[in-house]
Amino acid sequence: MARPVLITRALAAVLAVWTLAPAPALADEPAQVGIDEIYHEVGVADTPTDYVVLVDTSRSMAEDGRYSGVRSGLRGFFAGLDAADRVTLITFAEVPTIVYTGPRPGPAVIARMPATPEGNATDIGAALDRALAVLEGGDTGAHGAVVLLTDGEHAPLAGSRFASSTAWPALAERGRALGERVSGYAIPLAGGENGAELLTGTVPGTVTLALANPSEVVDLLDRLDERVRRTELGRLVAGDVNGTVAATWSAFPDGGDLASSVRVTLTLRTTTSVLPLWVSGLRGELVGVGGTVTGLPEEILLPPGEAQHIDVVVRSTEAAGLRLGERTTEVPTRLRLAGVVSSPWTTAIESELDIDFALRDLDSTAAWPSVWTTGLSWTWIVFIGVLLLGVLITGLVTWELRNPQLRGHLLAQSADGGAQRIALEGSRRVRFARPASLSDPSVSGEFVVRGTRDGGALVTYFPARGQPGQPRKLPPDVDVDVYGILIRHLRP
């Protein structure tokens, strides 16, 4: 007999795994939010940015209108910044020069720049050194952005510290020390890398914004603040692209009996640091013994890193059996939880930042050394027996009260026939046929007599055809006409 049970449990386990497999096609998708709302949620829109703008003023910048384009583009760029942003504008050729440092500048700052580029060198190393010094002394809570606009390769004067490679490792170390709060943006104005590699080596993760022609620098600078926001958001969500939801259970009651309801607490927490996650189609199952997990929400939104506690009830659904006597068996049960994981942010971020998310569905299993009690306990058997006996006794007492014993006897006589004597003593119900009538022998029926609590008798006539008559009480020693028959109750 053990083999069919094992086969049944094996099939049940396979069915549980199949039914718990995530089904994205059937899951409800969360309402998606726009990119601007996401900026505010993560604080990118509200966190000030400390911009350090490095502008090459060597002679070659005069070609193809590069320098004039940069000046025009910076006007629009500065105008689009938030009031809380800070700007340090540095021009560089042989040496770097700070033109302005302070809050969001107005158009007049552009006039402080050289009217024409006349430098004889391009010391990108010295410019980056000055940019890092500005950020190192700035607000550590602000996001930093280094913007490099140049049309040439690094070409310093012979006396520059950065004319040889020995000074660059220290510069790179300082850039790494600033951490992820600083991003870099290289804008080559004459094609090629134009210093982008040097900025990348100093500020890890630098983005190169290539131009098809120098005139595009105006539009690019107009949109640079938006690009900075996107870069910062991309940095924040980079670690969340493969996020999922972790499930943990409260300490299971050791030896919890699945024959009754067992209450436990489920804790759900995202593995993401920024991205909120949406879990739909959440469902649980007992593996090892058939059962249910109730109390789970159909869907739930989980803020990043926050724990959500859910009280659930676990119970076996397998029949306990009708065997006499209880038997408790240890069951190596496992609680399995599954759900479809998505996010209300993915659509906007994937389209705006060109990031592909690969969120992992929830699929968690936890072992639980529970027990399962089957059969009927002797306590319940005795209780049910006593209950049935009590019901039987109550029924008998009620029947006796409603049907008291009769006393004496009856005399029943038709109008033209002889008298009939009917014994009642000790009986609870007595039936007798209607006495025959000589004038109308076709009339027939039956009388039923039962006792009353006061020692009297109650008689009801049941004709052979038609409905029964109304019960009539028989006073002692008095003739009573009951549907044409005189009946007298003679008591002892």
Automatic annotation (TrEMBL):
It holds the Pfam family VWA_2. SUPFAM superfamilies: vWA-like. The keyword Transmembrane applies. Residues 50-224 form the VWFA domain. The chain crosses the membrane at residues 378-399. InterPro entries: VWF_A, vWFA_dom_sf. It comes from the Bacteria. Residues 1-27 form the signal peptide. Keywords: Membrane, Signal, Transmembrane, Transmembrane helix. This is VWFA domain-containing protein. It comes from Actinokineospora fastidiosa.
